[in-house]
Amino acid sequence: MIATARLRPYQRLRSPAVTMVLKTGRSTRAQRFVIHSLPNALPYPRLALVVPKRLVARAVGRNRIRRLMRESFRLRQRELGGRDVVIRLTRAPTSPPLTLREVDAVIVSHCHG
């Protein structure tokens, strides 16, 4: 992909907008998580991640999942365009562990579906 496709601080979705996306946005369900999105008036996408402690007890595991989700979003942000995106983990990733390929496949299907 493009080396300059960075994830900037202003691309973080804040609390009131997260609530709006969860209530009114379009959603795509995968085996382990749900992606919600809603068009925004900005020229870039924004991201929020929901990784509950009850599903992944250890911080190391939660952080790894967030890194995978952020990396997939970063690589696909041009395809997403001006959208607010919330990725929510719904099932604990026991075995096999969550992979970048799995997250990326769901984001791609959400972009094109």
Gist of the model:
Helix content is 40%, strand content 20%.
Task: Give short descriptive properties of this protein.
113 residues; 3 helices; alpha+beta; four-stranded mixed β-sheet
Topology overview:
Blueprint (H helix, E strand, L loop, with lengths): L14 H10 L1 E4 L3 E7 L6 E5 L8 H22 L2 E7 L10 H13 L1
Helix pairs in contact: 2-3
Helix content: 25-40%
| Share of residues in strands | 15-25%
The biggest sheet, with number of strands, parallel, antiparallel or mixed sense and barrel status, is: 4 strands, mixed
Secondary structure tally, helices: 3
Secondary structure tally: strands: 4
- Strand arrangement, major sheet: 1-2-4-3
**Any low-confidence stretches, pLDDT <50, length ≥5?**
none
Class computed from helices, strands and strand pairing: alpha+beta
Q: What is the CA–CA distance across the termini? A: 21 Å
- Rounded to an integer in angstroms, the radius of gyration calculated over CA atoms is 13 Å
Arithmetic mean of pLDDT? 89
Provide the succession of SSEs: HEEEHEH
What gross morphology would you assign? globular
